[in-house]
Amino acid sequence: MSGSTLKAMYEKIPTSVKAAFSPFFVHAMVDNPEFKRTWEELERFDAMSGDERHALQLVKLRETLAYARDNVPYYGRLFEERDVDLSREDILTELAKLPLLEKADAIAAGDSLYSIDPRLKYFETFTGGSSGQALRVLLDQSSVYRERAFACHTYAKHGFDIRKSRTAAFWGHNKQMDYYYSPLKNEIVISPFRLYREQSAREIVRDIRKFGAMFLAGYPSAIFQFVQLMKREGLTLPVEHIFYYAENYDPDKRVFVDSYLKCTSSSDYGHTEHAVKAEVGDDSVEFNDLYGYTELLPSDEPGEFRIVCTGFTSKKMPFIRYATDDVVKIGADGKRCLIGHKRSDVFLLGKGGARIFKGAMTLHVDELSGIGAYQYYQSEPGRAKLLIVAPGGLTKTQENNVMGYINRRTEGLLDIEIEYVNEVKVSKRGKALWAVVETSEL
Protein backbone atom coordinates (compact mmCIF):
# COMPACT_ATOMS: atom_id res chain seq x y z
CA MET A 1 0.00 0.00 0.00
CA SER A 2 1.49 3.37 -1.02
CA GLY A 3 1.98 6.33 1.31
CA SER A 4 -0.46 8.39 -0.77
CA THR A 5 -3.14 5.69 -0.43
CA LEU A 6 -2.71 5.60 3.34
CA LYS A 7 -2.95 9.39 3.48
CA ALA A 8 -6.16 9.35 1.44
CA MET A 9 -7.67 6.69 3.71
CA TYR A 10 -6.77 8.66 6.82
CA GLU A 11 -8.32 11.88 5.52
CA LYS A 12 -11.65 10.10 4.92
CA ILE A 13 -11.91 8.93 8.55
CA PRO A 14 -14.15 11.16 10.75
CA THR A 15 -12.10 13.42 13.03
CA SER A 16 -13.82 12.09 16.15
CA VAL A 17 -12.41 8.58 15.65
CA LYS A 18 -9.07 9.26 13.93
CA ALA A 19 -7.06 8.53 17.09
CA ALA A 20 -8.59 5.06 17.37
CA PHE A 21 -7.21 4.18 13.93
CA SER A 22 -3.65 5.39 14.63
CA PRO A 23 -2.23 1.88 15.38
CA PHE A 24 -3.39 0.72 11.94
CA PHE A 25 -1.49 3.48 10.15
CA VAL A 26 1.66 3.07 12.25
CA HIS A 27 1.71 -0.67 11.56
CA ALA A 28 1.00 -0.04 7.87
CA MET A 29 4.21 1.98 7.79
CA VAL A 30 6.57 -0.26 9.76
CA ASP A 31 5.16 -3.51 8.33
CA ASN A 32 5.50 -2.29 4.76
CA PRO A 33 7.93 -4.58 2.85
CA GLU A 34 10.12 -1.64 1.79
CA PHE A 35 10.38 -0.33 5.36
CA LYS A 36 11.22 -3.80 6.69
CA ARG A 37 13.78 -4.48 3.96
CA THR A 38 15.53 -1.16 4.63
CA TRP A 39 15.44 -1.68 8.38
CA GLU A 40 16.96 -5.16 8.09
CA GLU A 41 19.66 -3.83 5.77
CA LEU A 42 20.49 -1.10 8.30
CA GLU A 43 20.76 -3.72 11.05
CA ARG A 44 23.15 -5.83 8.96
CA PHE A 45 25.15 -2.73 8.03
CA ASP A 46 25.63 -1.83 11.70
CA ALA A 47 27.04 -5.31 12.37
CA MET A 48 29.64 -5.04 9.56
CA SER A 49 33.27 -4.06 9.88
CA GLY A 50 34.45 -0.75 8.43
CA ASP A 51 35.92 -2.47 5.38
CA GLU A 52 32.72 -4.43 4.76
CA ARG A 53 30.63 -1.26 4.97
CA HIS A 54 32.85 0.54 2.49
CA ALA A 55 32.71 -2.41 0.07
CA LEU A 56 28.90 -2.47 0.21
CA GLN A 57 28.76 1.29 -0.28
CA LEU A 58 30.83 0.98 -3.47
CA VAL A 59 28.53 -1.79 -4.73
CA LYS A 60 25.53 0.50 -4.24
CA LEU A 61 27.38 3.37 -5.87
CA ARG A 62 28.11 1.25 -8.95
CA GLU A 63 24.46 0.12 -9.11
CA THR A 64 23.24 3.72 -8.82
CA LEU A 65 25.54 4.90 -11.61
CA ALA A 66 24.53 1.99 -13.86
CA TYR A 67 20.83 2.73 -13.38
CA ALA A 68 21.33 6.43 -14.13
CA ARG A 69 23.35 5.64 -17.26
CA ASP A 70 20.66 3.30 -18.61
CA ASN A 71 17.51 5.19 -17.60
CA VAL A 72 18.24 8.92 -17.26
CA PRO A 73 18.91 10.84 -20.51
CA TYR A 74 21.03 13.51 -18.79
CA TYR A 75 23.44 10.94 -17.38
CA GLY A 76 23.37 8.72 -20.46
CA ARG A 77 24.82 11.56 -22.53
CA LEU A 78 27.21 12.62 -19.79
CA PHE A 79 28.66 9.15 -19.28
CA GLU A 80 29.36 8.86 -23.01
CA GLU A 81 30.92 12.33 -23.22
CA ARG A 82 33.18 11.69 -20.21
CA ASP A 83 34.06 8.08 -21.12
CA VAL A 84 32.71 6.72 -17.85
CA ASP A 85 33.16 2.93 -17.96
CA LEU A 86 31.43 1.13 -15.10
CA SER A 87 33.09 -2.19 -15.97
CA ARG A 88 36.39 -0.81 -14.71
CA GLU A 89 37.42 -1.91 -11.23
CA ASP A 90 38.04 1.51 -9.68
CA ILE A 91 34.53 2.94 -9.49
CA LEU A 92 35.68 6.08 -7.65
CA THR A 93 37.97 7.03 -10.53
CA GLU A 94 35.02 6.71 -12.90
CA LEU A 95 32.81 8.77 -10.58
CA ALA A 96 35.42 11.53 -10.48
CA LYS A 97 35.15 11.92 -14.27
CA LEU A 98 31.66 13.36 -13.83
CA PRO A 99 31.28 17.09 -13.20
CA LEU A 100 29.60 18.41 -10.07
CA LEU A 101 25.85 18.81 -10.37
CA GLU A 102 25.02 22.30 -9.09
CA LYS A 103 21.42 23.19 -8.30
CA ALA A 104 21.42 25.54 -11.30
CA ASP A 105 22.52 22.61 -13.49
CA ALA A 106 19.67 20.47 -12.17
CA ILE A 107 17.15 23.23 -12.87
CA ALA A 108 18.53 23.71 -16.40
CA ALA A 109 18.49 19.95 -17.10
CA GLY A 110 14.72 19.84 -16.59
CA ASP A 111 13.00 16.61 -17.63
CA SER A 112 16.25 15.06 -18.88
CA LEU A 113 17.21 14.46 -15.24
CA TYR A 114 14.16 12.20 -14.71
CA SER A 115 14.22 8.43 -15.18
CA ILE A 116 12.28 7.16 -18.19
CA ASP A 117 11.64 3.81 -16.47
CA PRO A 118 7.83 3.37 -16.85
CA ARG A 119 7.63 1.07 -13.82
CA LEU A 120 8.56 3.78 -11.34
CA LYS A 121 5.78 5.44 -9.38
CA TYR A 122 6.74 8.80 -7.97
CA PHE A 123 5.58 11.99 -6.32
CA GLU A 124 6.54 15.62 -6.76
CA THR A 125 8.00 18.05 -4.25
CA PHE A 126 10.10 21.21 -4.33
CA THR A 127 13.29 22.17 -2.59
CA GLY A 128 12.68 25.18 -0.44
CA GLY A 129 15.20 27.24 -2.29
CA SER A 130 17.00 28.30 0.90
CA SER A 131 19.84 29.21 -1.45
CA GLY A 132 17.50 31.48 -3.39
CA GLN A 133 16.42 28.97 -6.05
CA ALA A 134 13.60 26.42 -6.03
CA LEU A 135 14.00 23.02 -7.70
CA ARG A 136 11.26 20.59 -8.73
CA VAL A 137 12.19 17.18 -7.33
CA LEU A 138 10.62 13.83 -8.25
CA LEU A 139 10.99 11.03 -5.69
CA ASP A 140 10.06 7.34 -5.78
CA GLN A 141 6.81 6.60 -3.94
CA SER A 142 8.56 3.72 -2.19
CA SER A 143 11.21 6.12 -0.89
CA VAL A 144 8.68 7.29 1.71
CA TYR A 145 9.15 3.97 3.50
CA ARG A 146 12.92 3.93 3.03
CA GLU A 147 13.24 7.46 4.42
CA ARG A 148 11.12 6.60 7.44
CA ALA A 149 13.21 3.47 8.08
CA PHE A 150 16.44 5.50 8.05
CA ALA A 151 14.93 8.08 10.40
CA CYS A 152 13.46 5.52 12.81
CA HIS A 153 16.68 3.52 12.88
CA THR A 154 18.49 6.65 14.06
CA TYR A 155 15.71 7.49 16.52
CA ALA A 156 15.84 3.97 17.98
CA LYS A 157 19.36 4.68 19.26
CA HIS A 158 17.73 7.13 21.66
CA GLY A 159 14.95 4.91 23.01
CA PHE A 160 12.36 5.48 20.28
CA ASP A 161 9.98 2.53 19.76
CA ILE A 162 8.93 2.43 16.09
CA ARG A 163 5.51 0.97 16.95
CA LYS A 164 4.62 2.73 20.18
CA SER A 165 6.51 6.01 20.58
CA ARG A 166 4.77 9.30 19.89
CA THR A 167 6.34 12.60 18.87
CA ALA A 168 5.41 16.27 19.06
CA ALA A 169 7.09 18.15 16.21
CA PHE A 170 7.53 21.92 15.84
CA TRP A 171 7.58 22.95 12.17
CA GLY A 172 5.39 24.07 9.26
CA HIS A 173 2.00 25.67 9.73
CA ASN A 174 -1.31 24.28 10.97
CA LYS A 175 -3.94 25.99 8.79
CA GLN A 176 -5.73 27.70 11.70
CA MET A 177 -5.67 24.52 13.83
CA ASP A 178 -3.80 24.08 17.12
CA TYR A 179 -1.98 21.13 15.55
CA TYR A 180 -2.50 18.34 13.07
CA TYR A 181 -1.88 14.63 13.46
CA SER A 182 0.47 12.74 11.13
CA PRO A 183 -0.72 9.10 11.15
CA LEU A 184 2.29 7.53 9.43
CA LYS A 185 4.68 9.06 11.96
CA ASN A 186 2.31 8.93 14.95
CA GLU A 187 3.09 12.55 15.78
CA ILE A 188 1.32 15.83 16.27
CA VAL A 189 2.75 18.77 14.33
CA ILE A 190 2.65 22.16 16.03
CA SER A 191 3.27 25.39 14.14
CA PRO A 192 6.12 27.48 15.62
CA PHE A 193 3.87 30.50 15.13
CA ARG A 194 1.48 29.15 17.74
CA LEU A 195 4.13 30.10 20.29
CA TYR A 196 3.17 33.76 19.89
CA ARG A 197 -0.37 33.31 21.16
CA GLU A 198 -1.23 34.16 24.77
CA GLN A 199 -1.01 31.16 27.11
CA SER A 200 0.52 29.22 24.22
CA ALA A 201 3.09 27.29 26.27
CA ARG A 202 0.51 26.09 28.80
CA GLU A 203 -1.87 24.99 26.03
CA ILE A 204 0.87 23.26 24.04
CA VAL A 205 2.09 21.38 27.13
CA ARG A 206 -1.52 20.29 27.70
CA ASP A 207 -1.84 19.04 24.10
CA ILE A 208 1.48 17.15 24.21
CA ARG A 209 0.60 15.50 27.53
CA LYS A 210 -2.85 14.53 26.25
CA PHE A 211 -1.35 13.01 23.10
CA GLY A 212 1.26 11.14 25.13
CA ALA A 213 4.35 12.24 23.20
CA MET A 214 7.63 11.56 24.99
CA PHE A 215 9.80 12.82 22.13
CA LEU A 216 10.09 16.31 20.63
CA ALA A 217 11.32 17.10 17.12
CA GLY A 218 11.65 19.98 14.68
CA TYR A 219 13.21 23.42 14.37
CA PRO A 220 15.77 24.14 17.13
CA SER A 221 14.70 27.81 17.19
CA ALA A 222 11.06 26.86 17.91
CA ILE A 223 11.88 24.27 20.57
CA PHE A 224 14.21 26.70 22.34
CA GLN A 225 11.50 29.36 22.37
CA PHE A 226 8.94 26.83 23.65
CA VAL A 227 11.18 25.80 26.54
CA GLN A 228 11.91 29.45 27.38
CA LEU A 229 8.15 30.03 27.70
CA MET A 230 7.80 26.87 29.79
CA LYS A 231 10.47 28.05 32.22
CA ARG A 232 8.91 31.51 32.44
CA GLU A 233 5.57 29.96 33.43
CA GLY A 234 7.04 27.23 35.65
CA LEU A 235 5.78 24.40 33.42
CA THR A 236 7.19 20.88 33.21
CA LEU A 237 6.96 18.17 30.56
CA PRO A 238 8.33 14.60 30.54
CA VAL A 239 10.62 14.29 27.51
CA GLU A 240 13.02 11.45 26.72
CA HIS A 241 14.83 12.91 23.71
CA ILE A 242 14.72 15.73 21.16
CA PHE A 243 15.42 15.24 17.45
CA TYR A 244 16.50 18.50 15.79
CA TYR A 245 16.31 19.01 12.03
CA ALA A 246 15.92 21.64 9.26
CA GLU A 247 18.07 24.18 11.14
CA ASN A 248 21.39 24.01 12.91
CA TYR A 249 21.27 24.33 16.66
CA ASP A 250 23.21 26.64 18.97
CA PRO A 251 25.21 24.47 21.45
CA ASP A 252 24.49 26.81 24.39
CA LYS A 253 20.76 26.81 23.65
CA ARG A 254 20.84 23.03 23.33
CA VAL A 255 22.39 22.75 26.80
CA PHE A 256 19.68 25.03 28.20
CA VAL A 257 16.88 22.94 26.67
CA ASP A 258 18.40 19.60 27.69
CA SER A 259 18.98 20.86 31.23
CA TYR A 260 15.48 22.25 31.73
CA LEU A 261 13.67 19.24 30.26
CA LYS A 262 16.17 16.78 31.78
CA CYS A 263 16.54 14.99 28.47
CA THR A 264 19.05 14.31 25.70
CA SER A 265 19.04 15.59 22.12
CA SER A 266 20.55 14.96 18.69
CA SER A 267 20.60 16.60 15.27
CA ASP A 268 20.00 15.20 11.80
CA TYR A 269 21.24 16.60 8.47
CA GLY A 270 19.64 15.97 5.11
CA HIS A 271 17.95 17.52 2.08
CA THR A 272 14.71 17.33 0.12
CA GLU A 273 16.74 15.82 -2.73
CA HIS A 274 17.40 12.65 -0.66
CA ALA A 275 21.07 12.52 -1.59
CA VAL A 276 22.76 12.78 1.83
CA LYS A 277 22.04 12.02 5.46
CA ALA A 278 24.18 12.54 8.55
CA GLU A 279 24.08 12.68 12.32
CA VAL A 280 25.53 15.96 13.58
CA GLY A 281 27.18 16.65 16.93
CA ASP A 282 28.80 19.75 18.40
CA ASP A 283 32.13 18.78 16.82
CA SER A 284 31.29 15.82 14.61
CA VAL A 285 29.50 14.96 11.36
CA GLU A 286 28.83 11.28 10.65
CA PHE A 287 27.50 10.60 7.15
CA ASN A 288 25.33 7.53 6.57
CA ASP A 289 27.25 5.39 4.07
CA LEU A 290 24.26 3.16 3.33
CA TYR A 291 22.19 6.20 2.31
CA GLY A 292 24.68 7.54 -0.23
CA TYR A 293 28.27 8.33 -1.13
CA THR A 294 29.56 11.64 0.21
CA GLU A 295 32.63 13.54 -0.92
CA LEU A 296 34.21 16.43 0.97
CA LEU A 297 35.89 18.67 -1.60
CA PRO A 298 38.10 21.66 -0.68
CA SER A 299 36.33 25.02 -0.92
CA ASP A 300 37.87 28.46 -1.37
CA GLU A 301 38.14 28.84 2.41
CA PRO A 302 41.02 27.13 4.28
CA GLY A 303 39.84 24.16 6.33
CA GLU A 304 36.39 24.12 4.71
CA PHE A 305 35.17 21.27 2.54
CA ARG A 306 32.07 21.34 0.38
CA ILE A 307 29.56 18.50 0.76
CA VAL A 308 29.09 16.69 -2.57
CA CYS A 309 26.75 13.72 -2.50
CA THR A 310 25.36 10.82 -4.52
CA GLY A 311 22.12 9.36 -3.15
CA PHE A 312 21.07 5.70 -3.21
CA THR A 313 17.44 5.82 -2.03
CA SER A 314 15.45 7.20 -4.99
CA LYS A 315 15.75 6.40 -8.71
CA LYS A 316 13.27 8.72 -10.38
CA MET A 317 15.62 11.69 -10.23
CA PRO A 318 19.14 10.54 -9.32
CA PHE A 319 21.44 13.12 -7.79
CA ILE A 320 25.02 12.19 -8.67
CA ARG A 321 27.88 14.36 -7.38
CA TYR A 322 25.28 16.88 -6.25
CA ALA A 323 27.05 19.94 -4.87
CA THR A 324 25.25 21.31 -1.82
CA ASP A 325 25.70 24.78 -0.37
CA ASP A 326 26.84 23.24 2.92
CA VAL A 327 30.42 22.75 4.03
CA VAL A 328 32.22 20.86 6.77
CA LYS A 329 34.89 22.79 8.61
CA ILE A 330 37.71 20.56 9.85
CA GLY A 331 39.86 21.97 12.64
CA ALA A 332 43.51 21.28 13.36
CA ASP A 333 42.37 18.87 16.07
CA GLY A 334 40.33 16.90 13.53
CA LYS A 335 36.98 18.02 14.90
CA ARG A 336 34.28 18.56 12.28
CA CYS A 337 31.65 21.27 12.25
CA LEU A 338 28.80 21.47 9.73
CA ILE A 339 28.33 24.98 8.39
CA GLY A 340 26.73 26.47 5.30
CA HIS A 341 23.41 27.77 4.06
CA LYS A 342 21.43 26.21 6.91
CA ARG A 343 23.56 27.75 9.65
CA SER A 344 22.20 31.25 10.07
CA ASP A 345 21.26 33.44 13.02
CA VAL A 346 19.40 35.88 10.78
CA PHE A 347 15.67 36.12 11.42
CA LEU A 348 12.75 38.30 10.39
CA LEU A 349 10.79 40.22 13.00
CA GLY A 350 7.03 39.68 12.90
CA LYS A 351 4.20 41.58 14.51
CA GLY A 352 4.43 41.72 18.28
CA GLY A 353 8.14 40.90 18.24
CA ALA A 354 7.78 37.38 16.84
CA ARG A 355 11.12 36.03 15.62
CA ILE A 356 10.70 34.21 12.30
CA PHE A 357 13.62 31.96 11.37
CA LYS A 358 14.69 30.52 8.04
CA GLY A 359 13.13 27.09 8.54
CA ALA A 360 9.65 28.62 8.65
CA MET A 361 10.20 30.95 5.68
CA THR A 362 11.66 28.55 3.13
CA LEU A 363 9.25 28.37 0.20
CA HIS A 364 7.96 25.06 -1.18
CA VAL A 365 5.68 26.30 -3.97
CA ASP A 366 5.42 25.49 -7.67
CA GLU A 367 5.07 29.18 -8.55
CA LEU A 368 8.76 29.78 -7.71
CA SER A 369 10.18 26.81 -9.64
CA GLY A 370 10.90 28.94 -12.71
CA ILE A 371 12.44 32.02 -11.12
CA GLY A 372 16.12 32.92 -10.95
CA ALA A 373 16.32 33.61 -7.21
CA TYR A 374 14.43 35.09 -4.28
CA GLN A 375 15.35 36.83 -1.05
CA TYR A 376 13.56 38.52 1.86
CA TYR A 377 14.32 42.13 2.72
CA GLN A 378 13.11 43.76 5.93
CA SER A 379 13.46 47.33 7.19
CA GLU A 380 10.56 47.43 9.67
CA PRO A 381 8.99 44.84 12.01
CA GLY A 382 5.91 43.01 10.79
CA ARG A 383 6.55 43.80 7.13
CA ALA A 384 8.98 42.43 4.55
CA LYS A 385 9.60 42.40 0.84
CA LEU A 386 10.02 39.21 -1.13
CA LEU A 387 12.60 40.14 -3.76
CA ILE A 388 12.30 37.99 -6.87
CA VAL A 389 14.65 37.72 -9.85
CA ALA A 390 12.36 36.77 -12.74
CA PRO A 391 12.59 38.59 -16.10
CA GLY A 392 9.00 37.75 -17.02
CA GLY A 393 7.63 38.14 -13.51
CA LEU A 394 4.80 36.10 -12.03
CA THR A 395 1.15 36.32 -12.95
CA LYS A 396 -1.21 37.99 -10.50
CA THR A 397 -2.61 34.59 -9.58
CA GLN A 398 0.87 33.25 -8.90
CA GLU A 399 1.70 36.28 -6.77
CA ASN A 400 -1.47 35.80 -4.74
CA ASN A 401 -0.68 32.11 -4.27
CA VAL A 402 2.83 32.91 -2.99
CA MET A 403 1.63 35.62 -0.59
CA GLY A 404 -1.21 33.39 0.60
CA TYR A 405 1.27 30.59 1.27
CA ILE A 406 3.49 32.89 3.34
CA ASN A 407 0.50 34.30 5.24
CA ARG A 408 -0.61 30.77 6.17
CA ARG A 409 2.86 29.77 7.31
CA THR A 410 3.35 32.89 9.44
CA GLU A 411 -0.29 32.90 10.61
CA GLY A 412 -0.63 36.58 9.74
CA LEU A 413 2.42 37.73 11.73
CA LEU A 414 4.23 39.09 8.65
CA ASP A 415 2.87 41.22 5.80
CA ILE A 416 4.62 40.48 2.50
CA GLU A 417 5.04 42.61 -0.61
CA ILE A 418 6.55 41.19 -3.81
CA GLU A 419 9.16 43.26 -5.63
CA TYR A 420 11.05 42.30 -8.79
CA VAL A 421 14.79 42.94 -8.89
CA ASN A 422 17.69 42.23 -11.23
CA GLU A 423 19.81 40.53 -8.57
CA VAL A 424 19.89 39.62 -4.88
CA LYS A 425 22.66 40.15 -2.35
CA VAL A 426 25.14 37.32 -1.85
CA SER A 427 27.56 36.25 0.87
CA LYS A 428 31.35 36.44 0.70
CA ARG A 429 31.23 32.88 -0.66
CA GLY A 430 28.99 34.07 -3.49
CA LYS A 431 25.87 32.32 -2.21
CA ALA A 432 22.50 34.05 -2.08
CA LEU A 433 21.47 35.22 1.39
CA TRP A 434 18.02 34.01 2.43
CA ALA A 435 17.27 37.37 4.08
CA VAL A 436 18.72 40.86 4.42
CA VAL A 437 17.51 42.60 7.57
CA GLU A 438 18.14 46.30 8.13
CA THR A 439 16.08 47.44 11.11
CA SER A 440 17.25 49.03 14.36
CA GLU A 441 14.76 46.98 16.38
CA LEU A 442 16.66 43.71 15.90
From TrEMBL:
Keywords: Ligase
Keyword Transport assigned: no
GO MF term list: ligase activity
PANTHER family: CAPSULAR POLYSACCHARIDE BIOSYNTHESIS PROTEIN
Protein's name according to its UniProt entry: Phenylacetate--CoA ligase family protein
